Amino acid sequence: MSLATEVERPVVLRRHTTGDRARLLLLHGLANSATVWHGFVERADPDLDIWSADLPWRGEGVAGWSDRGDLPGWVAEALRAVPGGAGVVVAHSFSANLLLALLDRELAAGLDPFDRYGIHGLVLVSPFYRTDPAAFEWADISRYLNDFHLIMEDGIRVHAAGRISDRLCRDMAYRVRDQVGPYGWTRFFQTYLDTPWLRTEAMRVPCLVLSGEDDFAALPGEAVELAARLPDARARVLPGCGHFLMSEQPANFAAVIAEFAGALPTGGRPASGSRPVGEHIR
What we know:
The protein has one domain (3-131, 196-268): 3-Layer(aba) Sandwich (Rossmann fold), CATH 3.40.50. The protein has twelve helices and seven strands. Strand 6 (207-212), helix 10 and strand 7 form a beta-alpha-beta unit. The model is unreliable at 270-282 (pLDDT under 50). By secondary structure, it is of the alpha/beta class.
């Protein structure tokens, strides 16, 4: 497959490890890519069967994703593509919210998305969440709009690990912000605004909600509140890290994920007949 063809594909799935204990599907956030998980994958329990998806809102983006696309539908496409079921879905930031939006939409339609996609557990990493629409204020729009580049800058800085200057990091963050554009930002913020109406009480699979103590974007208190609204969930706030837990503390993150996956019933195990490592699936 040519690189050009792959860049144009909305969803690109990869398999990283072939363990036989529990399957994980990793979903990156806005303007990131599956590379955000590399530190975690390198340190993960080798008995896990780990997959990742590059989604339309990845760094280089897929043309038209923000103005015409069904964003929860693309999450559904990633879930369907994993042979034998998605298992434990680990979703970061914007994708955590889109995953919740997908589940909510299907529950509202009388469907069972957990059985449909083979979901046995959720790990929601740095999600955005509020319980009351009145909790949103005009100041929130200003902060998330005018400081949007700071989230990008934080991710670039963590990924670069000191290899680039602060000035270059800031310049790159502005470029990423401009690639996301007004439509992309609007889709993000609308998804956030919709969170008070999520049917969290119907999301009855085991859930772990993770947040960084120093996260200035998705505040730790919101993660704790989300976990309190889910029937079978617990929140964990990791000290000493911000929005990109999997990159900032990959070993600690891997240990937390292994503990959660290890406590799940055998339904988290992969089915037979899985595709080879590294194969790309639409």
